């Protein structure tokens, strides 16, 4: 749901070998053991081929206070992966004649700016121009409180429009909340009922549903952020994200869902073709997911301290899903490692070596850095012995010193390499390199 500094790029620099006959499960176990020993990741992962699970792992705690361990059946909030489910419901409505992709939304929401120019398709592929309500400065002041449909519509209406409909694409959670209301009006049923009737019921997904208050007795997980130790996050009230981010699931269920989607079980292949047609980086509830020379599709998610990834490689019928309730290591790196193990490619197990720094040592890095390669400026600050970075419009992130003048934010795969005497900094993330200079 929320904006963050995480990426969803599975890129690489070498060619893939053919499909692996046997996954290197022992090395993957070693990877997850390392993550757990170093307190870097809590969550679950599953890899499937043709709908059959071939590797699954769960580590960490689903509840830290009571030392409750997760299982592969532990359920996590999956955030914006929910949008894939919502898109499937929209295409089901289109296929049964209840909706049309090109119909405008003014009949549903006349109070929304430009509603007579915004189509259902524009909502699906983030081309509506409607401001995302989760980007409001006050969003985290009220996200734990219940909201009615009328209240959410007022909030979305007040956000207005940030660009002309269909002129470009920009991610907006408001789009999928509005799609939720359209679905409920079209079918005369709640979103939860529609998910159960049209998706989870037919696929027998017993661990996938629209979430409510987290219930440990139902093998659900709390979420956490790390501040010298794990701190429990507050829960977003599920009356707010709805079809934009309210689903709860497991990696094995998510793999079953996406395999069914890509094999024509949920919607027609014609609808799937429309869903995965990419314009300005966006499909209709789906993103492109490259892995080396493979072309895949999927979505990621983030809500509270939960993060998630779901991807599918149609050529090989390989699906991979990750759900996390706390991490200090990039999900992207884990996904790359697991897929590399499957395809027979090498991958490294991190060592998590750090060096000790003192507050006075950090002063030479402090300042605002700008780059000609990207519009985001990076502000470097400190709190005690910890260096922090903050990109324009995004939350600050703590970094660990891993070498002299080198700091990392492992959760997002960010590496900052400073040259203090030249007042420059190099940002490395997901294979990309950006040069920065202090202003």
CATH H-level superfamily of the largest domain: DD-peptidase/beta-lactamase superfamily
Count the beta strands: 19
Distance between the termini: 32 Å
User: Radius of gyration over alpha carbons?
Assistant: 22 Å
Indicate the CATH architecture of the largest domain.
3-Layer(aba) Sandwich
Largest sheet: 8 strands, antiparallel, barrel
Percent of residues in beta strands: 25-35%
Mean pLDDT, all residues: 93
In short:
The chain is α+β, with helices and mostly antiparallel strands and 439 residues long. It has helices at residues 25-37, 82-95, 120-124, 139-142, 149-159, 173-187, 191-203, 251-262, 269-275, 331-343; strands at residues 41-49, 52-59, 76-77, 209-210, 224-226, 230-232, 247-249, 287-291, 294-303, 306-313, 318-327, 367-370, 378-383, 386-391, 396-403, 406-409, 414-419, 424-429, 432-438.
Topology at a glance:
Layout: H1 25-37, E1 41-49, E2 52-59, E3 76-77, H2 82-95, H3 120-124, H4 139-142, H5 149-159, H6 173-187, H7 191-203, E4 209-210, E5 224-226, E6 230-232, E7 247-249, H8 251-262, H9 269-275, E8 287-291, E9 294-303, E10 306-313, E11 318-327, H10 331-343, E12 367-370, E13 378-383, E14 386-391, E15 396-403, E16 406-409, E17 414-419, E18 424-429, E19 432-438
Antiparallel strand pairs: 1-2, 1-11, 3-7, 4-7, 5-6, 8-9, 9-10, 10-11, 12-13, 12-19, 13-14, 14-15, 15-16, 16-17, 17-18, 18-19
